[in-house]
Amino acid sequence: KIVYSLVDSGGGVFSADPSSGVVILEKPLDREVQDSYQIRIKATDRAGGEGSLSTEVDLTIMVLDVNDNPPVFQKQDYAVTVPEDVTVGTEVLRVFATSSDIGVNSEIYYRFLSGNELGKFSIDDSTGKM
Q: Transmembrane ranges (predicted)?
């Protein structure tokens, strides 16, 4: 009979079932706080006393990203003054936002929510160019 235990539990984030060795999550994960954990698992036989044998193995746990961070604009408010004779198609402003997520979860798309009811302006949905 083998008994499993964690030598290093990643700061209490993980535990191990002593009978099966299954690693169990004990605390919520947040990739933006910590993106990986190194834990060490020990397996000991039940011979007992000085005759017990054991071995240890390192386990790396990588935390994958989920889309849990909203985009944040570089500025809270944008304002621009445009002369009435500006040529159609001229870039008048470029807005910019970022996300703490990674990969596809950090991709940002721009669109007007209001204020462009007459369709006088357009925005590039991937660059924020207006």
A: none
Question: Which one-letter amino acid corresponds to residue 13?
Answer: V
The token pair that represents 88 in the structure block: 């159609």
Contact by Cβ (8 Å): 40, 58 = yes
Record the pTM. 0.72
Segments in the chain below pLDDT 70: 47-49
- C-alpha 32 chain-centroid distance: 5
Contacts of residue 77, defined as CB under 8 A and 6 or more positions apart, other chains included, come to none
Indicate the length of the chain as a whole number: 130
Cα 80–82–95 angle (5° rounding)? Answer: 35
